[in-house]
Design goal:
Blueprint (H helix, E strand, L loop, with lengths): L12 E8 L5 E4 L7 E3 L12 E6 L9 E8 L4 E8 L3 E6 L8 E4 L11 E8 L8 E7 L5 H12 L8 H9 L6 H5 L2 E2 L5 E5 L8 E7 L4 E9 L1 H4 L5 H9 L3 E3 L2 E3 L4 H7 L7 E12 L4 E12 L2 E4 H10 L5 H20 L9 E6 L5 E7 L3 H22 L2 E2 L2 E2 L4 E3 L5 H13 L9 H15 L5 H11 L4 E3 L23 H14 L9 H31 L6 E10 L2 E6 L5 E5 L9 E4 L4 E4 L5 E3 L3 E10 L4 E6 L6 H13 L1
Parallel strand pairs: 11-18, 12-19
Antiparallel strand pairs: 1-2, 1-4, 2-3, 4-5, 6-7, 6-9, 7-8, 9-10, 12-13, 13-14, 14-17, 15-16, 17-18, 20-21, 22-23, 24-25, 26-27, 26-32, 27-28, 29-30, 30-31, 32-33
Length: 660
């Protein structure tokens, strides 16, 4: 009888993201696993919070599955803010963080002018085998103007985005020239003689898209969507490209932009500024005045913007019927309305969420909050960008290499999760709204009908917010399942390469297709995952930045009574968004204890009083007082102000009844 081999089977490594709690314990979130892997601090193996890692699962025999980090694949954060302690021969850097982080060793040659006790930004260099601490280099000494400036910089760094570009990247950008190359011009279609203009916010500096209009006959037109040709300047393997990929997106905070690419690229070479010749990548549509597309062409072009419009200027032309290029703007507006109508007819969902913008003084202090309105001028640009994006995605989807689809960064949005949808449908029913869940198309139609029916009613905001939460998150992936929210079978991001790296990847693949020289990128899905992760990190920074400015603005209103709408409910209290300022804060269940013992009704999105039956439900209007504004925690706290008949009286009556 032969003996079985005594060789142990190797435990496969799993990939995930490490999250370290304040207590120092680690959990690795692995896609597809119901439970996170527990990782104890001595098993971190040089990994830090947010890093993408490979983990070996331990055969621990305990109730919780444990793991040991075998490898760090990607660092979430490579720059840190903190204080430096300088000794005679070396220095130590202590990063600021709510999560445990190691001190960094900094050699004297890497201090770059930093002195003892300075507040600095340190870049992670390496963590050698056997070394107890990582090694870092001082990138800059913090010269923050004030606490707000420092807070914004910290948000950028904490979410893994560098504050500055390296000298190598800046030198490479400055070496680039925008001079017209006759050979390059010969390879492109020349659109400089066609009426072209940009439409952007009044404070925009990077104009990465333009529209052109050319009349072909009384009924037919050539409409061009022209996009800055960033890939002409940012070439694969260059320092600029590596930096652009690492960041993957620009970050937009209330008082600043942390750009994906240096200003020489974003605001000069690639910005479609008026009266300048520029390299562009375009989608040209041949269509009639009813929006019927007869043909399209995709390719490299050379354009010249005749005019720079702001959204407000275009809106004024639409509303008054007066202004420059009235005929062309009226045509584009009419076409955009047609495309929008068709989109919703074909299953797109008309979600509208409230966006706020801060009115700031010269030092970034918020003076007021403005609710952004999406007007016809915004929708005009949006519809033509959507048209270009879907046309490019559909164009690429048809092409095969070796009978296989080209790996391509599609922008997808999956169908709603039924588990999230059911409680929302039940909640909407309480307000009298019906929902058809027969199939995905019926769900989309029901959502649109709901948005129409709820418009202008007290429950509008809460149902819009809850509806959005039932939706899947849009991501980049090579698996083309379509974009449910937009109702598109094919969709990608092509129109903003100055601020989004996936658009640069799309441009390159398109270029290769046009050159009949496609080499499928086997790492495309990995790149898509990276871009999706960076996008989420940017959104986190942007949300936190908005929250900080909200708290900063509300600090002058401590003790004031306000009207608000309940925007969220949990077991420990409910969140209220003020009607006037659109700022959100918490009413703690502890502060409601004097009125009743409140319990969380999950299905009803409410807190319910045990004795009085009083309900605080999402969407309810309440009176509140601002009692605390904590900038460090970016947190507002409110007290609830009872109505004429207070709950205290109700509670007393309830107790008397029980005694009898």
């Amino acid at each position: 009888m032969s003996k079985k081999s005594g060789k142990k089977k190797e435990t496969p490594l799993v990939k995930g993201v490490l999250e370290i709690t304040r207590s120092g314990m680690g959990y690795v979130i692995v896609e597809g696993r119901d439970k996170d892997l527990l990782v104890r601090p001595h098993d971190f193996n040089k990994a830090m919070n947010g890093d993408t890692v490979r983990v070996k699962i331990k055969d621990s025999g305990g109730r919780r599955v444990e793991g040991v980090i075998a490898e760090v694949i990607e660092r979430k954060q490579t720059e840190f803010i903190g204080n430096i302690q300088v000794n005679e021969n070396f220095a130590f850097f202590t990063p600021d963080s709510q999560k445990p982080l190691p001190d960094f060793y900094v050699s004297i040659k890497n201090l770059n002018g930093a002195k003892d006790k300075d507040r600095v930004v340190v870049k992670f260099l390496n963590w050698e085998n056997g070394a107890k601490k990582p090694e870092g280099e001082v990138v800059s000494v913090m010269q923050a103007k004030d606490a707000s400036d420092m807070a914004m910089k910290e948000l950028i760094i904490q979410n893994g985005f560098p504050l500055e570009f390296s000298k190598t990247v800046l030198d490479e950008a400055h070496s680039l020239e925008g001079n017209i190359d006759e050979e390059e011009l010969a390879r492109r279609k020349d659109y400089r003689d066609v009426l072209t203009f940009t439409i952007d916010p009044d404070d925009a500096k990077d104009f990465d898209d333009a529209l052109s209009v050319k009349k072909l006959s009384d009924t037919d037109f050539e409409i061009g969507v022209h996009i800055a040709d960033v890939s002409h300047f940012v070439t694969p393997g260059s320092a600029l490209d590596e930096e652009g990929y690492a960041r993957a997106t620009s970050v937009y905070l209330p008082d600043r932009v942390n750009p994906m690419l240096p200003e020489k690229i974003s605001n000069e070479l690639c910005s479609l500024r008026p009266k300048e010749d520029k390299y562009t990548f375009s989608v040209i549509f041949n269509m009639n005045s009813k929006g019927k597309i007869k043909d399209y062409w995709v390719g490299k072009t050379f354009t010249h913007s005749d005019q720079r419009f702001t959204y407000d200027e275009v809106q004024k032309i639409i509303e008054t019927g007066n202004g420059p290029h009235l005929e062309e703007i009226s045509l584009l507006n009419s076409l955009a309305k047609h495309f929008r109508k068709e989109r919703f007819k074909n299953g797109a969902i008309n979600f509208s969420s409230t966006e706020v913008k801060f009115k700031l003084d010269e030092n970034g202090k918020p003076l007021g909050i403005i609710v952004k309105e999406s007007k016809d001028s915004h929708k005009l640009v949006e519809e033509f960008m959507l048209l270009a994006n879907r046309t490019v995605a559909a164009h690429v989807a048809k092409i095969k290499v070796n009978k296989k689809p080209i790996p391509f960064p599609y922008r997808i949005h999956d169908t709603p999760d039924e588990e999230k949808l059911r409680p929302f449908v039940a909640f909407a029913r309480k307000f009298g709204y019906k929902f058809d869940m027969k199939d995905d198309a019926a769900i989309a139609k029901s959502f649109n009908q709901l948005m129409l029916d709820v418009h202008g009613k007290p429950e509008q905001h809460v149902l819009e917010q809850l509806g959005i939460r039932t939706m899947a998150k849009a991501v980049y992936t090579t698996e083309n399942v379509g974009h449910y929210g937009l109702g598109f079978e094919n969709y990608c991001h092509f129109t903003s390469p100055i601020r989004r790296y996936p658009d640069v990847m799309v441009h390159r693949i398109l270029h290769d297709i046009l050159q009949h020289d496609v080499h499928p990128d086997k790492k495309m899905e990995e790149k898509c995952v990276h871009c999706s992760q960076r996008e989420r990190a940017a959104m986190e920074a942007e949300r936190a930045g908005n929250k900080y400015k909200q708290v900063e603005f509300m600090m002058d209103k401590l003790g004031e009574d306000m009207e608000g709408v309940i925007s969220g409910v949990s077991a420990f209290g409910f969140w209220v968004e003020t009607v006037k300022e659109k700022c959100e804060g918490l009413v703690s269940v502890k502060d409601l204890a004097e009125y009743d013992d409140f319990r969380h009704d999950d299905a009803g999105y409410a807190l319910v009083g045990v004795r009085t039956g009083k309900k605080f439900r999402m969407g309810d209007t309440v009176q509140i007082k601002l009692v605390s504004a904590n900038l460090e925690k970016r947190q507002l706290d409110f007290d609830w102000i009872p109505g004429i008949e207070s709950l205290k009286k109700k509670a007393v009556k309830s107790k008397k009844k029980k005694r009898h």
